[in-house]
Specification:
With 86 residues, this protein is mainly β. It has one domain (22-85). 12% of the residues lie in helices and 34% in strands. The protein has one helix and five strands, in the order αβββββ. The relative contact order is 0.17.
């Protein structure tokens, strides 16, 4: 699905896309929480990631601040570092 596809569908729901981040390929089954200028993304699917934190002070250009990997990947064998800071 492209950004244009998402934009077209969002207009049907009376919302519009103002920014996008692909979460470095870890955008699977997530829960979102916005607190101030940050969005906390809990990864619940097969990704080795557990948590991503994005700075959305500029909502048109969200940026990953940090990511946390699962301590033990539960549904995948992919290994990752325990903390990545950008």
């Amino acid at each position: 699905m492209t950004i244009a596809d998402i934009q077209a569908k969002s207009e049907n729901w009376n919302v519009r896309v103002i920014g996008h981040h692909d979460l470095n390929g870890h955008g699977d089954g997530m829960q979102l929480l916005k607190q101030g200028r940050y969005v906390y993304v809990a990864h619940l699917g097969t990704s080795p990631m557990a948590l991503s934190i994005l700075d959305v002070a500029d909502p048109t250009d969200p940026r990953v601040v940090t990511r946390r990997c699962r301590t033990r990947p539960t549904r995948t064998r992919t290994k990752c570092r325990s903390l990545a800071i950008f």
